[in-house]
Amino acid sequence: MEHFDLLLKNAHVVLPLPQGESLGVQQLDLGLKDGRIAAIGPRLAAEATEILDLTGLHVLPGVIDSQVHMREPGLEHKEDLETGTRGALLGGITSVFEMPNTNPSTTTRAAFEEKLRRAAGRCHTNYAFFIGGSPDNVEQLAELEIQPHCAGIKVFMGSSTGTLLVEEDVTLERILRAGRRRVIVHCEDEARLKERKHLAVEGAHARFHPVWRDELTALRATQRLLALARKTSRPVHVLHVTSAEEMDFLKTQKDIATVEVLPQHLTLEAPECYERLGTLAQMNPPIRDGRHRERLWKAVLDGTVDVLGSDHAPHTLEEKSKTYPQSPSGFPGTQTLVTLMLDHVNAGRLPLTRFVELVGEGPRRVFGLESKGRIAVGADADLTVVDLKKTRRIENKWIASRAGWTPFDGLRTTGWPVMAVLGGRIAMREDEILLPHSGKAVDFTSGRL
Length: 449
Ligand code: DOR
Known about the structure:
Blueprint: E1 3-16, E2 23-33, E3 36-41, E4 47-53, E5 58-61, E6 63-68, H1 81-90, E7 93-98, H2 109-119, E8 126-132, H3 141-144, E9 150-156, H4 169-177, E10 183-186, H5 190-203, H6 209-212, H7 215-232, E11 236-238, H8 244-250, E12 257-261, H9 263-267, H10 272-277, H11 290-302, E13 307-308, H12 317-320, H13 334-346, H14 352-367, E14 383-393, E15 412-422, E16 425-429, E17 432-433
Parallel strand pairs: 1-4, 1-5, 6-7, 7-8, 8-9, 9-10, 10-11, 11-12, 12-13
Antiparallel strand pairs: 1-2, 2-3, 5-14, 14-15, 15-16, 16-17
Helix pairs in contact: 4-7, 7-8
This protein binds (4S)-2,6-dioxohexahydropyrimidine-4-carboxylic acid.
(4S)-2,6-dioxohexahydropyrimidine-4-carboxylic acid is lined by residues 69, 101, 160-161, 186, 283-284, 313, 329-330.
């Protein structure tokens, strides 16, 4: 009789249906062995070192958060790879792709390898790193983007936290011509940001954040990017899309552009969030009003959106309490992503299978993942187990990020991660990390172009 390391019984499993590519939910057993999913079936007759009955729970492919800022090296007073991935795992995330706006920025092979060295043996989730595209490293980008465990090249078109910035079309075009993988881009038009900065300074309240960084600031950058993507035939991934106008536009660009949204842009709304939370709700690109939020939801449901990430961007409460606009943009998000989205599932706004597409199939396709993001025989045994019926309050004291807070403090949500399996072993269960530091570097098929 077959012997598994871990046998998960009677779970509602979200996986591709045999008749096609679409996802469905079926009550099945999963046999895990040597870090992989070895067997899937109803009532598997097998022996196992450990058997768990998951009746009543749902098993999703390990949730991938493809946009996080872990602040190491250089800004460890906000977060580091250990604390950042601890929060992610407690929130039900099994892999994170980390952004290059650290100090120093990740723009050289040495800086990238230094991150891999620091991550080895310290991360609680799997991990990969983006490399920043800048005017100084264009010549090296084609080589850099195919380094093992590199998630791709990231470009900031508008300035945010850190010094990475590609302001000019000529530089952006050179970056798009260097290499072949999909380039991921923060789209805010720097020229318009500079022109309008006085609006934030004179207003001096976070409610002016979306006035300064308005929808045209986002749209202009996205349109400039897409014109260059077409000119160079380079696929792009537009991060954290916030505006109705961008979604209308991007819907017509799906042959070359993939699209990300964040839970906070689907959950919070201006001006209420700024009146209630002040600078705690400040992030780039900003949270906008209900018209935009509704359009983002439509795009999630009609297939325009490919990926959901957290943009986990921790800053300390002390830093956030500076007077606007000196206050830094961003807030922690990995730990709350899954429960916020499951709450939307429970509210009837989002099918569970669509959520799984956005954190599994989507990242798999957009970034070229070799063996993650899908429950299938042979895939890595990374799983997120959730209790769709569990109701609980999100609280600051639950947040493991060094920043120690969340803008969702006090919010009651229904649908919670209760377990995470990493490489076939139970890494997190009911708020406890059972297998610390078990994250491994992620491999990409597109890294072998
Ligand atoms: O709000 C943000 N914070 N947006 C970004 O683009 C960067 C991030 C950060 O690193 O703090």
